[in-house]
Amino acid sequence: MDVETAKRNAARLAVRDHFPPSAAYIGIGSGTTIVYVLEAIVALDHDTSRMRFVPTGYHSRQNIIKCGLTPIAFDSLPDDVLLDVAFDGADEVDEDLNCIKGGGACLYQEKLVAMRARRFVCVAGTSTRPHIPTRTSLAFPIPRHAG
Amino acid sequence: MDKAGPLKTDQANFIIDAPFPTLLLPQDSTVPNPTSTTPPPAPTPQTPTPTTTAPDATPATHVQTSLYDMLASPSPPPSSAPSSPPPPGRWDPATLARAIKLIEGVLSVGLFVGENGDEAAAAGKKSGGQKPVAAYFGMADGGVVVRSGGVDRRVE
Predict the structure, then answer these.
(1) Which residues 71-90 of chain B have a CB within 8 Å of chain A?
(2) What is the pLDDT of residues B87-122, one digit of tens each?
(3) Considering CB atoms only, which of B93, B106, B144 is closest to A98?
(4) pTM summary value
(5) In the predicted model, is pLDDT for residue B32 greater than 50?
(6) pLDDT category, A68, cuts 50, 70, 90?
(7) Cα–Cα dist B95/A29, whole Å
(8) What is the DSSP annotation of A53-117?
(9) Cβ(B114)–Cβ(A100) under 8 Å?
(10) Hey, which residues 55-84 in chain A have their CB within 8 Å of chain B?
């Protein structure tokens, strides 16, 4: 078993458990594990022609397109619409499901997408720290306006 | 990440790491400060996370504080309520996120805390929460651990 298999399995199960068949809008994060989420969605073989996938940044948008799915910009969402689900990774996740995110520098958009979704589902590979048994220091990104 | 110049996001914001001492988890709120003889302070109305009773900071006093000043003195100031000060250097995630967000110039904080989508909906809110409802961890042996509802389950 290798790390890529682990990511693929995690993604497959997350999609199995949380992707609603009638999904209209789906949030998609960046990172290698979320590519497997997209693959798992395609593998469900639903009609995805009317589904719109909201990326959290440049790379997730490219991944959506590469998988043959249709992206939609966050700003283009109709006002009253919530995403049915959002899938994204995390740098660290604690026992209470607090997440540290932002290592990929898509922080602002990631949070907007997570909050616009009915449910955010975290899908993590082995590079994510799942436990903080000694609760050591946490580092996290804080974007600031330039200038 | 190797990059010349300051690290910037897709939206051309600066992004910086901010190391911090151990954060409090909900179960920590029942552990009294060993140096204090008074009970932990009661939750304030601003505390967004229903499961924690960790001490709150007074956000207004941090508005003009720079991020690094705050990190250099990580203890939140005593709350205005007549109760004991929080344990030095210990924050709960929601309080920390709120305090940092209020620093002038901070656009977004990489802590995803507070409510998840189901909790936000149950509270009648229009937008979802920041926290995931579940986390799926791919393990080194190819198996998957699912964390939700406060428990970890091995699946596969």
Answers:
(1) none
(2) 556 677 888 888 777 777 677 788 899 999 999 999
(3) B93
(4) 0.76
(5) no
(6) very high
(7) 26
(8) EEESSHHHHHHHHHTTPPB--GGGS-TT--BSEEEE--SEE-TT--EE--TTS-HHHHHHHHHHB
(9) no
(10) 57-58, 82-83
